[in-house]
């Protein structure tokens, strides 16, 4: 049992980090972040082995990097299936289409949650860097990722202090606490009905 818990932890951690990097690739391209930036180059190098072969079969859709997004979805779906397979207490019927539909819904929900986590991290790092090192090399990348979300709230400025990061972080927390948890419970119920 301890071995299965450790294995589940490793699969979730390593797989979750890879999903985050795949999502980061998608969002960096969507935000038109500087391609030659070392951080962007790192993200591309880590994910090329999966994204490039998929891109040959799945072209970009309306300028969106659909191969990166589909890669993230496939890895997340595989992660969920592996975690369920390693759980001996709840046997799931993987031959049932209803099980895979429930897993797909959970995978999409988890990608949305991870996207919110990426945005949260980018906002926090950007806020800290603006105080300690405003001309850091990561600043253009972070600005490209966060600008569309912070811009509507830029008017929230009190005595020269920009409160837009705080407002966006509060909105993210509310989204994660209410609709995401309710949807997750609904999708888990759907998955359990397939057993």
TrEMBL record:
Protein name stated in the entry: YggT family protein
InterPro entries: CCB3/YggT
TM stretches of this protein: 7-27, 67-86, 116-135, 155-175
Top-level taxonomy: Bacteria, Pseudomonadati, Pseudomonadota, Betaproteobacteria, Neisseriales
Entry annotated with the keyword Transmembrane helix: yes
Keyword line: Membrane, Transmembrane, Transmembrane helix
Pfam family for this entry, one: CCB3_YggT
